[in-house]
């Protein structure tokens, strides 16, 4: 097994494979947005279902609370993600304009920044001067290097609108699944809740496994980790609803 892994690594690091890998685009932000929306959608909706069921509310009340929460929280999360991505994009553009202005006004100072950045990486002497000369000879490369090294900004650019839409769609699509059993009036309420629990658990497992495939994590560990997180949130909501029912004598069945 170890020998096979070594052979695979050697194959991955052949010049042509390295070149092909470096030309690939970074993993899409859409995956992160989808996972974020899906997990939060399932967690928050099933938490509402658990809390309402624990409080003894009728299936109709569970549906009303669930769908109201689904739409409102989905929109809220989409807006929040939009603002976060947009703020990062605006900050990057501000940093870019700042560096372009500095290069225009104090080129020697900016050149010295490049020199010190790469000197801190261990380069020196003639090699260091060649690196400085190469980078500062290309204005775009110079600016991008400063954005990465001085500001710690990733060169990958994301669309805030796309991020918001993907998050909202994932939130609604996955978050609605735990509510489906409550749309079946021919089922007993206890059966509806059990079915909702099973569906939510399957969603948590699938989301965790999807995340593991994208980010090269152990599939089962990622799946059960997400399941435990979602189950923990739902359990807290159920216990809270049950305690409030006992405390205030709620009887909404």
From TrEMBL:
* Gene Ontology biological process terms from the UniProt entry: intracellular manganese ion homeostasis
User: Which coarse location class applies to the principal site listed for this UniProt protein?
Assistant: membrane
Q: Which GO terms describe its cellular component?
A: endomembrane system
Coiled-coil annotation reads: none
Q: Which UniProt keywords are given for this protein, alphabetically ordered? A: Membrane, Transmembrane, Transmembrane helix
Lipoprotein listed as a keyword = no
Q: Where in the cell is it found?
A: Endomembrane system
Q: What is this protein called?
A: Predicted Fe2+/Mn2+ transporter, VIT1/CCC1 family
């Amino acid at each position: 097994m170890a020998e096979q892994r070594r052979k695979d690594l050697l194959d991955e690091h052949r010049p042509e494979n390295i070149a092909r890998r470096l030309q690939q685009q970074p993993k899409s932000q859409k995956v992160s947005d989808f996972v974020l929306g899906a997990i939060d959608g399932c967690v928050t909706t099933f938490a509402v279902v658990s809390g309402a069921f624990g409080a003894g509310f009728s299936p109709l009340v569970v549906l009303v609370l669930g769908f109201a929460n689904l739409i409102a929280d989905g929109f809220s999360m989409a807006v929040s993600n939009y603002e976060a991505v947009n703020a990062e994009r605006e900050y990057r553009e501000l940093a870019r304009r700042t560096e372009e202005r500095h290069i225009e006004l104090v080129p020697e100072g900016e050149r010295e920044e490049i020199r010190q950045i790469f000197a801190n990486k261990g380069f020196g002497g003639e090699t260091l001067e060649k690196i400085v000369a190469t980078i500062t000879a290309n204005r775009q490369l110079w600016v991008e290097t400063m954005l990465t090294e001085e500001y710690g900004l990733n060169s990958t650019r994301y669309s805030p609108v796309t991020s918001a839409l993907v998050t909202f769609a994932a939130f609604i699509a996955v978050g609605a699944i735990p509510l489906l059993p409550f749309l079946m009036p021919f089922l007993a309420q206890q059966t509806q809740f059990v079915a909702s629990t099973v569906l939510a658990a399957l969603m948590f497992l699938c989301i965790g496994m999807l995340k593991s495939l994208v980010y090269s994590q152990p599939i089962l560990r990622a799946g059960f980790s997400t399941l435990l997180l979602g189950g923990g949130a739902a359990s807290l909501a159920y216990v809270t609803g049950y305690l409030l029912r006992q405390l205030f004598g709620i009887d909404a069945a």
